[in-house]
Amino acid sequence: MTQIALIRHGSTAWNKEKRSQGQTDNPLDQEGREQAALLAARLAEESWDAIYASDLERASETARVIADRLGIQEIHLDPRLREMGGGQVEGTTEEERVAKWGADWSLLDLGKEHPDTGASRGKAALEDILRQHPNGRVIVVSHGAVLRNTLRALVPELDISVKLGNTSITRMVHQDQAWQCELYNCSAHLE
């Protein structure tokens, strides 16, 4: 049995401004660093074998905070764990999108990455992690949309309608050739 803790990165200034980040490389804000420290304290109550993260700064910085607390030297950066590409939407707020493209902007292509593409690369990354860490316990720090699309592909019956919160934990178990979700979107460490 392999256990994987899927983590969404800590908060950023663009999260607060409700700007679409996509693959724009933004750092954590002060609150995001504090969230990461609280998450690291929670994760330190258990034993972990490895940490993987998106190579975008907000995820890799969250992973660094966790790794420092856990005493894990190496963070494996994987671009397949990057957020979904937002195309022309990146950097805009909902209000700006409606003003520019109309109320039905979300139906337009605008260069956004297709959900199935994000799911496919997220799934491939997790399958490689499984091969590298059979029966291991691994932390994966990534982004909300790519994680939700990956979960949709791995556990189709899982209700992913609730967006993942910053530094939330989703626990996945791979056993008998199947994925199960033990915990979804838990942010108890922030309370």
TrEMBL record:
The active site is at 9 (tele-phosphohistidine intermediate), 83 (proton donor/acceptor). SMART domains: PGAM. Keywords: Hydrolase. Gene3D superfamilies: Phosphoglycerate mutase-like. GO terms for molecular function: fructose-2,6-bisphosphate 2-phosphatase activity. The keyword Hydrolase applies. Residues 1-30 are annotated as: Disordered. GO terms for biological process: negative regulation of glycolytic process; regulation of pentose-phosphate shunt. One of its GO terms (cellular component) is cytosol. Substrate binds at residues 8-15, 58. InterPro entries: His_Pase_superF_clade-1, His_PPase_superfam, Phosphoglycerate_Mutase. It comes from the Bacteria. PANTHER family: FRUCTOSE-2,6-BISPHOSPHATASE TIGAR. This is Probable phosphoglycerate mutase.
